């Protein structure tokens, strides 16, 4: 995951691709979320109590913080006239995420359901979002590289923004439902 973060952000800066930067930003959020969940599991493996709720809130807050960063950066990039260039290495990073994220999503979801651990279930949903975002990113990068359609980068960034916003709001709803029911949902909606 750290390779995904560094690769996406570095390549995004080099190629001028805000979609790669947005994907890298989401990867930072996913890495931080995973770190928070691992810390939670070490301290309270059952996922119950105040620590589970606090951990879930922290993971969800990271997604909400990412929304204005992606939207503001894309708008600033577009208004400044930046025209992204295709990145073959960026294509490889996105393709790697398309291959790896479904495995992480399924494993985390299964463990979260088996252990009834809300933070782990929410982290699984973030992996699902990362998978769908990597598909959008890969499509955008391929269109840029092979067809020279630089504007597709902004379209891919918009798709990524929609995924992040949807994930943040659905995560909040799942968390609130779990708190009201005094237990995590069996399997997140995603």
Written description of the protein model:
The chain has one domain. It is 84% helix and 0% strand. The two termini are 21 Å apart. The longest helix is centred in the middle third of the chain and has 31 residues. The C terminus is likely disordered. The protein is mainly α and 190 residues long.
Order of helices and strands: HHHHHH
Terminal Cα span: 21 Å
Helix content: over 70%
Name the poorly predicted regions: 184-190
Tally of alpha and pi helices: 6
Oligomer: single chain
Shape: elongated
Number of domains: 1
Q: Please outline the major beta sheet.
A: none
Over the alpha carbons, how many angstroms does the gyration radius reach? 17 Å
Using DSSP, what is the number of strands?
0
Derived from helix and strand composition plus strand pairing, the structural class reads mainly alpha
Percent of residues in beta strands: under 5%
Overall pLDDT: 80
């Amino acid at each position: 995951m750290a390779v995904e973060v560094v690769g996406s952000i570095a390549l995004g800066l080099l190629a001028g691709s805000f979609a790669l930067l947005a994907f890298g930003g989401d990867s930072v959020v996913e890495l931080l979320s995973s770190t928070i969940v691992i810390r939670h599991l070490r301290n309270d493996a059952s996922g119950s109590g105040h620590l589970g709720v606090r951990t879930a809130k922290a993971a969800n807050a990271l997604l909400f913080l990412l929304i204005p960063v992606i939207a503001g950066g894309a708008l600033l990039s577009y208004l400044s006239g930046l025209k992204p260039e295709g990145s073959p290495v960026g294509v490889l990073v996105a393709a790697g995420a398309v291959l790896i994220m479904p495995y992480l999503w399924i494993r985390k979801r299964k463990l979260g359901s088996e252990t009834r651990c809300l933070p782990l279930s929410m982290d699984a949903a973030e992996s699902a979002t990362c998978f769908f975002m990597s598909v959008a990113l890969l499509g955008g990068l391929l269109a840029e590289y092979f067809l020279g359609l630089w504007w597709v980068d902004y379209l891919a960034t918009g798709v990524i923004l929609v995924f992040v916003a949807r994930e943040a709001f659905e995560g909040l709803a799942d968390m609130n439902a779990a708190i009201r029911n005094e237990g995590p949902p069996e399997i997140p909606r995603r």
